[in-house]
Amino acid sequence: MTNPRHNFSSYANHNPMFYDEMYVSAHEPREHYQHLHNLLQTFEQSDLAKRQQASDLSYLHQGITFTVYGDRQGTERTFPFDLLPRIITAKEWDIIERGLEQRLRAINLFLHDLYHQQKILRDKVVPRELIMSSRHFRKEMINIDLPHNVYVSICGSDLVRIGDGSFAVLEDNLRVPSGVSYMLTNRQIIKSVFPRLFQNYGIRPVDRYGQALKSTLHSLAAENTNPTIVLLTPGRFNSAYFEHTFLARQMGIRLVEGQDLVVHDNVVYMRTTAGLQRVDVIYRRIDDDFLDPEYFRADSLLGVPGIFGAYKAGNVVLANAVGTGIADDKAVYAYVPRIIRYYLGEDPILNNVETYILREEKARKHTLANLDKLVVKAVGEAGGYGMLIGPHSTPEERDKFATLIQENPRNYIAQPTLKLSTAPCLLNGELVPCHVDLRPYILFGKEVTIVPGGLTRVALKRGSLVVNSSQGGGSKDTWVLNQ
Amino acid sequence: MLSRVADSLYWMSRYLERVENTARLIGVNHNYILDSVPEEKRPKRLAEVIHSLDLEETASPDLGMETLFKRLTFDMEETGSIVQAITFARENARNVRELISSEMWTQINRLYLSITQANPDEIWNDQPHTFYKDIIEGVYLFQGITDGTMNHSQGWHFIQIARYLERLVALTKLLETLYPNDIVMAEVMPKHFFRHAAALKSVSAFEGYCKVYTADLQPQWVVEFLLFNKEFPRSAAFSVNQIQKSLNKLADMTGKSSNHRLHQQAGQLFATLHYSDMSDMLEPNFSDYLASVKLKAYRLHDTIYKTYIDYGVE
């Protein structure tokens, strides 16, 4: 007879095919998860269900929602939250932290070089044509000097744990990364749901993110001034609007829309009831394309006419800078390890997911011979459309891709099919392994700050690899341990 | 405070006042017409309601009472309908959701849902009176919540200005409709009692009036009370006093105390209502007097916008 108390005494669904964050085997938790495992034994199913309900309600009542597009009423939904935390050891975090800092340092040097001397292109480490053909390369940025030469001040890189248990970078988000508000509210909620567990674990705090973001933005303004910093949002129809209001409140800065700002004689002002007030630093949550209808997309109603002129004149700071998208382009991603070696003369601490650049002959031959095992992605202008998932493909599809690759090898990269790690989630009262990734947030101003943790996104559907919020993904609180 | 935010708070408040005003006008007239207006005189009465809501262009008394009132309440396409006003009020509140208190948001949302989810036929078959009363109380509740939960800083003052300006304009329209020159001058006939009572009730003024003048309803006294009484919170004089108080506060808070034009205009409006009496009001005639009050109110709105919200960039 099974005692309902012991529902969680083992991980019956454990799948040895994947690295599991919590369990080595069905009965054996990893050392740093032992406490959590022990605690689970003391819960009854109904008790956990109650706590899950309490946390769900908390999100709803606080209005922590994202907007689902394509609905006339602009439906607001909560982002599903799984109660069981994802735990990272101090040793693992140390690698992640150093790795991310190194990576972002190199990326900022790379961007500065691309928009100035272009040494890396002359040295043929990165092909010139790859950069020049990308629509994310902003010629308008050439020879514009930025404070501290920082292009990317706010970065959210997606990490995955690969087969051997080490972390690798899947994607850099160097434009307007989102999700940090969930990192912060998840922590608030888990503290109220599992106070005792939390207290006994020795977890590094994340709450200072708002303050750190504010100092980062402050450090980009001219020294010894008292800059006016604002957050520029596309408005309440944007899916991340909650986050924009949240961060503005956390930092105590104004939340502005494009229509609130005016540019006069290359200076940006906001329209207040007490008259125009000068704005010095803008944390913008609007893409380059929509920023300034005079320079970029002319049909943009979200942006501020003339703001890019003020920016070029050095009268206002934008974070992130204009033109950072070139460095998180899929094609450029493949070169990041080489970019790190080129500028820093160091080996990358965090690797990319193994990527074959098909313009290179050796990689191409290997890929063509292993099409049934690899994922092939198109990287060019039409990126994202052409994609071959080898293990799920038919011989005809593989033939078609082989031809495509040979015709235009520059347009493709290939990667092995990923075995994302899993973590146990509570689904209908049982522990089910779900795939997870990790998005830590890196702040880069005069100095680098990485708040210990990040957003662990989870595919809350058995077997699904999709962690996006719009696709039934959810999140977990991420704990980085003191030791 | 951002000008856009002030703009949203201002219109949120004006639309809510409009919701209340229209709901009361419909509720009161529904009662009055059923009680004491003979069939053949109903179209004229309905025309008056339409006129006092400034809706001659879209609504017609030919629709009959029920259809007309249902449209003015539930028809989203009908300019000036209650459902349209509450929808606009809520949209404006949504634009500044993080700046108003969460209690305010919940209440305006609740009121919005109670109107948009109502079934018009059921309400009219049952007790329309209660429905309109609930709407009015929903707005009162919102105002109470606003006073009790929101900082009384700039935003709160914009809400006050908007509410009283809307109230003032609606009152002048009502008086314009119900009290043409010949009626103001007339001696009251007993058969007109209900008409004047309905006029007072349209602005919740019946009880207030009786406390000052007893239940003797004389047209001159009715308009005198609605325009000049300094204690009755829906009178023109009271509204203007509140507007001026909030404008002074705003000027201090924004450092715009020296704005001459705005203060001149507010002062003129104040003087028109606080230092006038019946003889000024009737010279040359009542409708001219009302028209000048209304014009001053519109000008004041424009100047507030030019000062705080929609100013030129030089």
Question: Can you walk through the features of this model?
Answer:
The complex is a heterodimer of chains A (483) and B (314). Chain A is an alpha+beta fold and 483 residues long. Chain A has helices spanning 34-42, 45-61, 90-114, 119-122, 128-132, 180-193, 195-201, 209-219, 241-251, 288-291, 307-312, 330-333, 336-344, 361-369, 395-407, and strands at 65-67, 76-78, 81-88, 154-161, 167-173, 229-232, 254-256, 261-264, 267-272, 275-278, 281-284, 317-319, 351-352, 356-357, 374-378, 387-389, 412-416, 422-427, 430-435, 441-444, 448-450, 456-459, 473-480. In chain A, β20 (441-444) and β21 form a beta hairpin. Chain A starts with 33 loop residues before the first helix and ends with a strand. Chain B has 2 domains: 1-150, no CATH class; 164-314, no CATH class. Chain B has 314 residues and is mainly alpha-helical. Chain B is 74% helix and 0% strand. At the A-B interface, α9, β7 and β9 of A face α1 and α13 of B.
CATH arch. level architecture of one domain in chain A: 2-Layer Sandwich
Round the Cα radius of gyration of chain A to an integer and report it.
23 Å
The H/E string of chain B reads HHHHHHHHHHHHHHHH
Number of helices of chain A: 15
Number of DSSP strands of chain A? 23
Largest sheet of chain A: 5 strands, mixed
> What is the number of beta strands of chain B?
0
Largest sheet of chain B: none
**Structural class designation of chain B:** mainly alpha
Q: What is the overall silhouette of chain B? A: globular
**Spatial strand sequence of the major β-sheet of chain A:** 13-5-4-20-21
Distance between the termini of chain B: 19 Å
